[in-house]
Design a protein that fits this description.
By secondary structure, the protein is an alpha/beta fold. The chain is about 30% helix and about 30% strand. Helix 2 links the parallel strand 7 and strand 8. It is globular and about 55 Å long. About 0% of the residues have low confidence.
């Protein structure tokens, strides 16, 4: 008998992946956590029935949410990561020796433990001496921070359930306050393709534009995310994501990546016409 995992992308669309076996299933205080083994995507993590990452394509998401800001900001020392209990963002950040401190704020301790146990490919650097894990609500954590971080990466789940508070105007305003004067915030921005996802994307973009003087959106192709077309937000107090990109400095590091390159970085900010139209509807300034 064949076993299949199906995720509902819209009332009319599902993504189905054939699975060999279920490795873990449990309920934390916040959500259902499942890990499956599949022949095509390897192991994958689902929260409340939604795929968070797969071993086959997680590198795309984690490289694009991490290396884009790191190639722009010239001197990142202190980083706040909100969500990201799987460890993928941390794995990419610790490649930079100049980073002194990474505060990882994850509300669900069980997610971290499950990823340590079953997804070591992503959770492999959580024990780095520069990483400090805080098991608490990211919304509450950032409220008490001011002028502390060079970079904030918001690797949240979708804008409902435990991640809902990470898409509010209050949250983005607190991130602005927690950043230093040259600070950058990057967040996952949902997909623009399906109607419900596009609405969430526009709502988040509007609130970020209202909070930051520089706000741009970039894209990547992630096969297991709804429609495969995924957006990220880049918000900054000073740096422009393309004009301030230092390709030579980044290339000189000789970091090994499978998706990100400085050339791709520039192209990722060239959005399709339909996405530009969606974003213009909610922008109050360019």
């Amino acid at each position: 008998m064949e076993l299949w995992f199906s995720e509902q992308h819209t009332p009319n669309v599902r993504l189905s992946i054939r699975v060999d076996k279920q490795l873990f299933s449990g309920e934390s205080d916040f959500q259902r956590i499942d890990v499956y083994e599949s022949p095509e995507f390897g192991r994958f993590l689902a929260l409340d029935g939604y795929i968070m990452l797969t071993e086959k394509d997680e590198f795309i998401y984690h490289e694009m949410i991490t290396h884009v800001p790191m190639a722009v900001h010239p001197h990142v020392k202190n980083v706040l990561v909100i969500g990201a209990g799987d460890g993928g963002v941390v794995r990419e950040l610790v490649k930079y020796p100049e980073i002194e401190c990474i505060d990882l704020v994850e509300i669900d301790e069980q997610v971290v433990q499950v990823c340590r146990d079953y997804l070591p490919q992503t959770a492999c650097r959580l024990d780095d001496e520069r990483v400090y894990i805080h098991y608490e609500d990211g919304l509450k954590f950032v409220r008490s921070r001011e002028n502390e971080y060079d970079l904030i990466i918001v690797d949240s789940t979708d804008p409902f359930g435990p991640g809902e508070g990470l898409f509010t105007k209050e949250f983005y305003g607190n991130c602005y306050k927690a950043l230093r004067e040259e600070g950058i915030m990057v967040n996952q921005h949902e997909s623009p393709f399906y109607e419900a996802d596009a609405t969430a994307c526009m709502r988040a973009h509007k609130r970020i534009v209202e909070s930051f003087p520089i706000s741009r959106v970039y894209q990547a192709h992630i096969p297991t995310y709804p429609s495969g077309h995924w957006l990220f937000g880049f918000a900054s107090k000073r740096f422009h994501p393309v004009r301030d990109l230092d390709s030579e400095r980044w290339l000189a590091r000789e970091l090994e990546t499978r998706y990100y390159t400085p050339r791709l970085h520039q192209g990722a900010f060239c959005l399709p016409a339909y996405v530009e139209k969606l974003l213009r509807k909610v922008e109050i300034r360019g």
